[in-house]
Amino acid sequence: MTYRIISAAVLCAMLGPQPLIAQDTSDTAQAEASAEQEAQTLLTQEELQELVGPVALYPDTLLIQVLVAATYPLEVVKADRFVQDNKDAEDLETQIEAQGWDESVAVLATAFPDVLADMAVHIEWTETIGTAMLAQDDDVMAAVQDMRKIAEEAGTLASGDEQTVEVTQDETIIIQPTDPEVVYVPQYEPETVYVDDGSDVGDAVAAGVITFATVALISEIFDDDDDWNDYWGCRNCGGWNGNPIIRNPDIDIDIDGDVNIGDRDNIGWDPGDERRDKARDEIGKRRGDGATTMPVKKPDRGDEMRQRLSKETGAADISRPGADRDVQRPDARRDAVDRTKAKAPNAPKQKAKAKAKVQSRPKQATRPAPRAQGGGNRGAAMQRRASSGQRANAGAARGHASRGGGRRR
């Protein structure tokens, strides 16, 4: 019997093309494993929902600026300090533009300084939401829609004089200023606004679940020929359903509400591959046993108020763990001890001199001290304390008045 050696190529030619079932199965499994591994290194949808809850009900155009500015946390802090130090400057807008910050940070500093200050106070939360935007912006925007739907179903999100809420055919919720020239910033507690207590929409709105204490008068901030002046009426800026996130104000808005975009390719926000990869690595490093260690929950208003007062007065917020409780620094205590030791050798002599001086004084007849009206020295001390308290209250009132109650006119 004669055996012939057949090469692999000849054998394949003889057998004809065969389906690569094993290869296809391997590729599918590998793709699924890669997607699952990537999902484990990113923030979950539940974590994202809690993260975006405090800002999900902002008007779309303002929300975009907040989310993009959060990707530059250092600039947020710098801009807030700059605004605080130059709030009375007549050419503040020009000075802000000269700093070279990202457009999102600059426009918040110009038109919404209270929103910027809130982001700076809660810088840990701001940094987390910025990292999430860089790593998984589509998931962030989906979480915003999730929270809006929850609020809409709870009856706490509705149209009014301050905002117009629209639900499109594909169930996307769009929030716009009712008047693009007057942009209100909603204020609400996430623990309340996303809870359905059985009230109808009118009752929920009347109960003040969402308030509008901060307002930006766009016409008084930006000129008519400024691109930002028309931006706040943009209806298609949210980047919903995979569309570009439009944060560049180079757009024209017609009277009927249509948005004409000149160059869509240059308007859509894109963090870039390098920043995206770095953000994903950061999220992966901060994930512990099934949960992230990144601060996805924004502190409540009580914490915010204490932190803001601490920032304004320079006093330590003693309610926070690890805060300075007005205890002297170790080096200050050492200095005090050293000064005491330096004086110690002379202490016996000083005591002796004091004793001799007392003994040399002529004795006088003792008599009770007259009780002065108003409690004598004690009454005077109380009057001084009252005067000091009045001055402190007057100073606080002046400080509150100078801040204008949080409203920018």
Walkthrough of the structure:
The radius of gyration is 33 Å and the shape is globular. The strands form three sheets. A two-stranded antiparallel ribbon has the order 1-2. The protein has a two-stranded antiparallel sheet with strand order 3-4. A two-stranded antiparallel sheet has the order 5-6. The protein is built from 19 helices and six strands. It has 409 residues and is mainly alpha-helical. A hairpin with a 5-residue loop joins β1 and β2. α3 crosses α9, α4 packs across α7 and α7 crosses α8.
List the helices and strands and how they pair.
Layout: H1 8-15, H2 21-40, H3 45-52, H4 60-69, H5 73-85, H6 92-98, H7 103-111, H8 113-121, H9 123-154, E1 163-167, E2 173-177, E3 182-187, H10 190-193, H11 201-206, E4 211-217, H12 218-221, H13 227-231, E5 251-253, E6 259-261, H14 264-267, H15 273-285, H16 301-313, H17 330-343, H18 347-360, H19 376-403
Antiparallel strand pairs: 1-2, 3-4, 5-6
Helix pairs in contact: 3-9, 4-7, 5-7, 5-8, 7-8, 9-15
Structural descriptors:
409 residues; two-stranded antiparallel sheet; single chain; 19 helices; mainly alpha
How many strand units?
A: 6
Output the strand order for the largest sheet: 1-2
C-alpha termini separation:
103 Å
By DSSP (H or I, 4+ residues per run), the number of helices equals 19
Mean pLDDT: 73
* Radius of gyration over C-alpha positions, nearest whole angstrom: 33 Å
Biggest sheet, in brief? 2 strands, antiparallel
Q: Could you spell the SSE succession in H and E letters?
A: HHHHHHHHHEEEHHEHHEEHHHHHH
Query: Based on helices, strands and strand pairing, what is the structural class?
Result: mainly alpha
Give the percentage of residues in beta strands.
Answer: 5-15%
- Principal-axis shape equals globular
pLDDT < 50 runs, ≥5 residues: 319-409
Which range best describes the helical content: under 10%, 10-25%, 25-40%, 40-55%, 55-70% or over 70%?
40-55%
